[in-house]
């Protein structure tokens, strides 16, 4: 079940003026840094969705509550990389993951926006939800302080592997932060399953965009 009353927030349009107009580049301002994101219309994963804006904004504004400095952070379904870039700027050791076909654009955005900064060098890796987890991310080696996910739940057929992936990476001591635009009944069905597995709190709601930001931790026996 969900506990606590969420904060009601608006997604702030943290755009900065563009020097020139490209249909495929968006400029954002988070944590004092201009971030330029190249989008691709060919893949759903290569577009900035509202959940990414909501989580980026929340991480920037709540650094005392969620201090990412020197923490190990995994983003699943990283898409364009905006959230991973913000986590890097906030001082985290970031591993950004997504499907193979999205990795070129993801790598480009992350390297472009972090290359000249004094921060931990981020890593970009392939992660197909529910597949080869123990081989590619063995528990003995990989433990994350934070797992981040934005707009990973929508009309697709891999909701069960997604939930299994969240369970796999969310160990005792891990905080999972998941921001999602809720559109369909299947989104709420996933949320119900999610709440049955994890200790969950809705941290914030963004009613204008139907985004909820949820914190989850593993239930310890």
TrEMBL record:
Tell me the GO BP annotations in alphabetical order. Answer: methylation
Does the keyword Amino-acid biosynthesis feature in the UniProt annotation? Answer: no
> Which InterPro entries does the annotation name?
Methyltransf_16, SAM-dependent_MTases_sf
Q: Name one GO molecular function term.
A: methyltransferase activity
Q: Which Pfam families is this protein grouped with? A: Methyltransf_16
Where does the source fall among the domains of life? Eukaryota
The answer to whether the entry has keyword S-adenosyl-L-methionine is yes
Organism for this UniProt entry: Podargus strigoides (Tawny frogmouth)
Keywords for this entry?
Methyltransferase, S-adenosyl-L-methionine, Transferase
Identification of the protein by name:
MT21C methyltransferase
Gene for this chain: Mettl21c
Which CDD domains does the record match to this protein?
Answer: AdoMet_MTases
């Amino acid at each position: 079940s969900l506990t606590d009353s969420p904060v009601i927030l608006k997604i702030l349009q943290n755009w900065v003026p563009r020097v020139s107009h490209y249909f495929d580049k968006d400029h954002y301002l988070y944590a004092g840094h201009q971030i330029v994101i190249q989008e691709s219309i060919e893949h759903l994963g290569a577009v900035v969705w509202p959940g990414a804006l909501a989580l980026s904004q929340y991480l920037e504004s709540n650094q005392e509550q969620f201090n990412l400095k020197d923490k190990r952070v995994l983003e699943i379904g990283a898409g364009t990389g905006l959230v991973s870039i913000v986590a890097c700027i906030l001082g985290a050791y970031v591993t950004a993951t997504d499907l193979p076909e999205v990795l070129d654009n993801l790598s480009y955005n992350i390297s472009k926006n972090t290359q000249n900064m004094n921060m931990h060098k981020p890593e970009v890796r392939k992660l197909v939800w529910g597949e080869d987890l123990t081989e590619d991310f063995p528990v003995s080696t990989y433990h994350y302080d934070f797992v981040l996910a934005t707009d990973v739940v929508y009309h697709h057929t891999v909701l069960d592997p997604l939930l299994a992936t969240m369970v796999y990476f969310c160990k005792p001591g891990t905080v999972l932060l998941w921001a999602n635009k809720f559109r369909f009944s299947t989104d709420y069905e996933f949320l119900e399953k999610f709440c049955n597995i994890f200790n969950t709190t809705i941290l914030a709601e963004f009613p204008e965009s139907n985004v909820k930001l949820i914190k989850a931790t593993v239930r310890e026996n």
